[in-house]
């Protein structure tokens, strides 16, 4: 079970306000879409936006309303089968690869489902807020954090969906690109020793951030900013995708099989390199951090550059050492939905872009911390069963809500995944 984030001492009005803000943001993300856009599933990793809208609603209905609202009747008896994601303990479900076949329920019906569940949650808060147990507030916060995870997935899935159209449609109007180059990179020393890894602050966390525990690292250095498109372009133009010496064997085989020549969304043409964004197809913004890299590409670049990727312990230790300000990060709230160049005047002895812009690949396997105990029941499936064959990423991205990120936050993906806003920072 996640750490307790809310207390029953909070007013029902405060809880309802936060709930409404999160739920409305999900719908705001989907507002620019055509109804046809919300059904498409061009690859297994991508879920249709309509499914995200319904699944996040099913989560509140299943874990809150059915558990804590006496006499609650589900909105539709078949929705649990359609919109359960991976909870085996809650019954059978539509295969993940078949989510794009769900032409019904209609998008309007999904929005009606959201409205009905929202009204029921509001009624529950109004009627019973003072009498609900602590477990309700834990699940309530978990549901909100879960929906914020899906907001990021919505943005990355929408980008992939639109990129597969020959029309290269724009999700939103283009924004002015920065003309100035990124400031020169510097190396910052981080003292080693015994440090604490994991959640150390008050408030919510996912169970995979617990328990906090001691780790030892040697002294190391970390670059003060993320690797840029310009720097990664040097690797591309130097033949990095044609030279096996820099690649993991598994990654090299995959890159050759899939004919990778550059990061996902990069397009080479007569006018030079362009990149598909949520604002459509535009010239490569050289000063911005590079994104949409697999772990294999990030590691190959690091090898080519004569450096390496940091471990997740090094990343968190450095983040706690440099204390980045969340308010300075480029998150979902900026509305940019893309990486942002670091200002040329940025302080060279500060560590920048640790939070926001791009998830940073680490050279650490995703596994349980010492002393981790998987929760009982369906919620034990939230994180624990995925702790194998994946790598940890840190720091959040331009699609992550700012209120969702923490220094202890552990994201995780398989090494081949590229459709998220994944980038890198070098260590040595």
Overall pLDDT metric: 95
Major sheet characteristics: 4 strands, mixed
Terminal CA distance reads 36 Å
N-to-C order of helices and strands: HHHHHEEEEHHEEEHHEEEE
The tally of beta strands, per DSSP, is 11
Query: Low-confidence runs (pLDDT<50, min 5 residues)?
Result: 1-9
Work out the radius of gyration. Answer: 22 Å
Oligomer: single chain
Which structural category do the helix and sheet elements fall into?
Answer: alpha+beta
Strand residue percentage? 5-15%
Helicity level: 25-40%
Brief write-up:
By secondary structure, this protein is of the alpha+beta class. The chain is 32% helix and 11% strand.
Describe the 3D structure.
The chain is an alpha+beta fold and 428 residues long. 32% of the residues lie in helices and 11% in strands. The chain is built from nine helices and eleven strands. The protein has helices at 12-30, 49-68, 79-83, 107-128, 134-163, 229-237, 249-257, 295-304, 312-322, and strands spanning 187-190, 193-197, 213-217, 220-223, 266-269, 272-277, 280-283, 359-365, 391-394, 411-413, 422-423. The strands form four sheets. The protein has a four-stranded mixed beta sheet. A three-stranded antiparallel beta sheet has the order 5-6-7, with no helix packed on it. A hairpin with a 2-residue loop joins β6 and β7 (280-283). The longest helix is centred in the middle third of the chain and has 30 residues, at 134-163. The two termini are 36 Å apart. Residues 1-9 have low confidence and may be disordered.
């Amino acid at each position: 079970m996640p750490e307790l984030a809310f207390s029953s001492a909070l007013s029902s009005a405060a809880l309802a306000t936060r709930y409404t803000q999160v739920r409305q943001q999900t719908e705001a993300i989907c507002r620019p879409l055509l109804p046809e856009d919300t059904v498409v599933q061009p690859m297994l990793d991508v879920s249709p936006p309509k499914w995200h809208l319904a699944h996040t609603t099913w989560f509140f209905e299943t874990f809150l309303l059915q558990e804590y609202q006496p006499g609650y009747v589900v909105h539709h008896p078949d929705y649990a089968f359609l919109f359960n994601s991976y909870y085996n303990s809650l019954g059978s479900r539509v295969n993940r690869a078949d989510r794009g076949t769900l032409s019904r329920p209609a998008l309007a019906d999904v929005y009606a489902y959201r409205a009905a569940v929202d009204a029921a949650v509001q009624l529950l808060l109004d009627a019973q807020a003072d009498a609900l147990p602590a477990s309700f507030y834990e699940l309530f916060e978990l549901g909100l954090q879960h929906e914020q995870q899906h907001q990021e997935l919505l943005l990355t899935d929408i980008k992939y969906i639109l990129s597969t159209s020959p029309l290269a449609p724009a999700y939103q109007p283009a924004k002015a690109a920065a003309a100035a180059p990124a400031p020169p990179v510097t190396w910052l020393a981080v003292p080693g020793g015994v440090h604490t890894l994991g959640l150390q602050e008050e408030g919510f966390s996912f169970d995979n951030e617990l328990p906090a525990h001691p780790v030892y690292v040697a002294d190391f250095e970390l670059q003060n900013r993320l690797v840029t498109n310009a720097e990664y372009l040097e690797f591309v133009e130097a033949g990095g995708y044609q030279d096996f010496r820099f690649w993991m064997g598994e990654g090299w085989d995959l890159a050759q099989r899939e004919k990778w020549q550059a990061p996902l969304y990069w397009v080479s043409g007569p006018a030079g390199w362009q990149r598909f964004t949520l604002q459509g197809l535009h010239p490569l913004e050289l000063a911005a951090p590079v994104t949409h890299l697999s772990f294999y590409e990030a590691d190959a670049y690091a090898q080519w550059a004569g450096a390496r990727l940091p471990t997740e312990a090094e990343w968190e230790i450095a983040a706690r050492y440099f204390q980045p300000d969340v308010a300075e990060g480029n998150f979902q709230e900026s509305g940019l939905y893309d990486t942002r160049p670091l200002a040329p005047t940025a302080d060279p002895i500060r560590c920048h872009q640790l939070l926001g812009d791009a998830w940073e690949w680490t050279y650490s396997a995703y596994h349980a911390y010492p002393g981790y105990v998987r929760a009982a029941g369906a919620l034990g499936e939230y994180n624990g069963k995925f702790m194998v064959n994946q790598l940890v990423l840190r720091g959040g991205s331009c699609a992550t809500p700012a209120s969702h990120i923490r220094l202890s936050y552990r994201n995780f993906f398989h090494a081949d995944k590229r459709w998220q806003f994944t980038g890198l920072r070098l260590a040595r």
